[in-house]
Design a protein that fits this description.
This protein has 645 residues and is an alpha+beta fold. Among the domains are: 123-200, no CATH class; 254-302 and 338-518, no CATH class. It is built from 23 helices and 15 strands. Helix 3 (103-109) crosses helix 7. The longest helix is centred in the N-terminal third of the chain and has 37 residues, at 26-62. The chain starts with a helix and ends with a helix. It holds the Pfam family HTH_animal. Residues 551-601 form the Helix-turn-helix domain. Residues 347-506 form the Reverse transcriptase domain.
Length: 645
């Protein structure tokens, strides 16, 4: 009886909605529906937040807050559910200068910079897919034509994988064996797209959220705000336009770092670099096509932009301040398409080989844990971490080049120099570092000290430069010393040895200054791990920095399901592998579960499955020779259907 009554009431509601939609205008009706959805979302969100707090309190009392990795990924029960942050993450969006941003716009930005709205198969999407098909056909023809040639007749580009397009497009000659198969493939792709266009694409944003996205775009286009990401947290940062200008102008007033320049000086610099490149590359016997492909005749001027270090803002007064001196920034000079972009890439492919010969250099957390486990830890040893203050802007270019020169001379027989001599490489390196002009707001400036974050050579040069700074410390032979770019981890037998190492590193260069961190509650964070040493026993667990807003690709984002699953699975795998014991593993997996939940991923209760043995992946030659077909993501069904053709 109750079911019949509910069914009758639902039919009445549906009938009334249809009448309202018929008599009211389409725009007014959509506005009413959007407002209703927004109200319901807020009600559900408040209720769920209240229930989550109750659950957290009960979990804390019972001590059962440890969670296992999820067996599968499920969306939250409400498709428009908005994930609220946990207590240890204050906000997933930072608004500066007291700017008033609508709450609904905040909820959209909280989805994260990696969130992708779903898109139907529009005319623009079809054009992009058609272009991708033409690119695929050209690559297939090129591959077949190259395979038919003898090894000595193959072009130099086939032996050196260059990630930059050619200056001029040369259509490959037709090949019947390729063109017939390609035409069949293209026909199937268009059939799949035609079937998909007949279906209604479900949006992953509500109507109200779409309106909020438009409003944010209007604020950006009318120069009211600047939307960027933070220096470390990874969240969106909303900065009023006038405050953004004031912060940048104040940063550029540092005469020890920058000086005014001009477009004519920029033109002189890049022309000199191109002349040096052509001269040295020809002397080294590089193929003319490679020389031309790595030279940019008309480069764009690099552009400066600043990332706000939101983790340095301690209070709400700092957030609402309009004083530019309140904000610490990380300067980035985008060199994409600039004079040193391609030549710097080529030099970096050579110089990056030197990092294998730097004993303290770390590439990932796994390498750090391996070195930690192999260390003979004493009972009364001391551990600390050192951090270099503003490494890139304080690197001495002359010292970095000297370190590069010494390492090239020492290891030139063990690395691929692509026909260049050490003096030729040093000439090109000096020419690249001399191209130091960038633009901001139509004005030109030159960086007169340090390396530009955004230049391809900067990380490699900074790592090699630090190898000279840390050399005296390695001679002291601490129990363990290792470094990831500017973060150093050190274990010494006594506190006196630790103090001596810190003073040695701080005295190597007038611009290089280090800060030191000691264990807090017996735990010391380094990279994404925490280390505890008690009575000569070392324990480790997973770590997330307080400044990290724990933003992953959201579950509702229009990304392939396998990609989202891989992101979450890798996070849980990392959280488990970093840990040294059962208790640490439980704590780390519970933290990973909370991070996943904040991004829309929930745990599914299912029967335990037998764990499969993980074998190392090996890519065979046939897989390596395959050519990727890149197209815009529409849905998993479309990708699967095209992949099975």
């Amino acid at each position: 009886m109750k079911q019949d009554q509910m069914y009758a009431m639902m039919k009445k509601c549906i009938s009334k909605e249809k009448h309202c939609a018929y008599h009211l205008g389409d725009r007014l009706w959509k506005s009413i529906v959007g407002g209703s959805i927004s109200i319901c979302d807020r009600i559900r969100s408040n209720i769920k937040r209240t229930l989550q707090r109750k659950f957290d309190r009960l979990s804390t009392r019972s001590g059962s807050d440890a969670a296992q990795p999820p067996n599968a990924m499920n969306p939250c029960n409400n498709s428009d559910h908005e994930i609220k942050t946990a207590e240890y993450v204050p906000s997933r969006v930072t608004v500066l200068g007291g700017f008033s941003l609508p709450k609904n716009a905040l909820s959209v930005l909280e989805l994260g910079p990696n969130f992708s709205p779903s898109q139907p198969i529009s005319t623009m999407v079809l054009c992009n897919i058609t272009c991708a098909l033409h690119v695929l056909q050209d690559k297939l023809r090129n591959k077949v034509n190259i395979d038919c040639l003898h090894e000595s007749q193959r072009p130099a580009e086939s032996r050196l994988t260059i990630p930059f397009p050619s200056a001029f497009f040369k259509q490959q000659t037709a090949n019947p064996s390729v063109d017939v198969s390609f035409r069949l493939f293209a026909d199937e792709v268009y059939k799949i797209l035609a079937r998909q266009r007949q279906r209604k694409t479900r949006s992953n944003l509500s109507f109200a959220q779409k309106q909020d996205v438009k409003e944010v775009r209007e604020l950006i286009e009318t120069a009211q705000i600047r939307l960027s990401t933070s220096g470390k947290g990874g969240e969106f940062v909303v900065t009023p336009h006038q405050l953004d200008i004031a912060i940048t102008e104040r940063h550029l007033q540092d005469a020890s770092l920058y000086r005014p320049s001009s477009s004519s000086e920029f033109q002189t610099q890049y022309r000199k670099l191109n002349r040096e490149w052509v001269k040295e590359a020809k002397s080294a016997g590089l193929h003319p096509t490679v020389i031309a492909r790595l030279k940019i005749e008309l480069p764009v001027c690099p552009v400066l932009y600043l990332l706000i270090k939101t983790h340095k803002l301690k209070s709400s007064n700092d957030l609402n301040s309009n004083d530019p001196s309140t904000f610490k920034v990380r300067p980035i000079i985008s060199c994409e398409g600039g004079p040193t972009d391609r030549i710097g890439w080529f030099l970096n492919t050579i110089l990056v080989q030197l990092l294998n010969y730097i004993p303290a250099h770390l590439t990932n957390t796994r390498m750090f844990l391996d070195r930690l486990q192999s260390t003979n830890i004493t009972e009364n040893c001391v551990m600390e971490s050192f951090d270099v203050t503003a490494l890139y802007t304080n690197v001495s270019n002359d010292s970095a080049m000297e370190a590069i020169f010494e390492m090239l001379n020492e290891h030139r027989g063990n690395i691929n120099l692509y026909g260049f001599s050490v003096p030729q490489l040093m000439t090109l390196l000096k020419a690249c570092l001399s191209c130091n002009i960038f633009s901001w707001s139509g004005k030109h400036f030159a960086q007169i000290r340090g390396l530009a974050m955004g230049q391809r050579l900067a990380p490699t040069l900074a790592i090699v430069f630090m190898s000279r700074i840390e050399a005296p410390v390695l001679q002291c032979r601490p129990l363990l010393y290792c470094r990831y770019i500017d973060d150093c981890f050190i274990i010494c037998a006594t506190q006196a040895e630790m103090d001596n190492c810190f003073e040695l590193m701080n005295g190597q260069n007038e611009h290089i200054k280090l800060t030191r961190d000691t264990p807090l509650d017996d735990w010391l964070p380094f990279l994404n791990a925490q280390i505890n040493i008690t009575n000569g026993i070392c324990r480790t667990k997973w770590y997330r920095k307080p400044s990290n807003k724990n933003i992953l690709v959201h579950f509702r984002s229009a990304h392939p399901t396998h990609a989202k699953k891989a992101i979450v699975t890798n996070m849980f795998r990392t959280a488990a592998r970093v840990c040294s014991g059962i208790e640490e593993k439980k704590e780390s997996l519970a933290l990973a579960q909370r991070v996943a939940a904040m991004n829309g991923y929930v745990q599914q209760t299912s029967r335990p499955r037998k764990r499969k043995e993980v074998l190392p992946r090996s890519r065979d030659s046939t897989h390596a020779e395959k050519i990727a077909f890149c197209l815009p993501f529409i849905s998993d069904e479309v990708s699967t259907a095209i992949g099975s053709v």
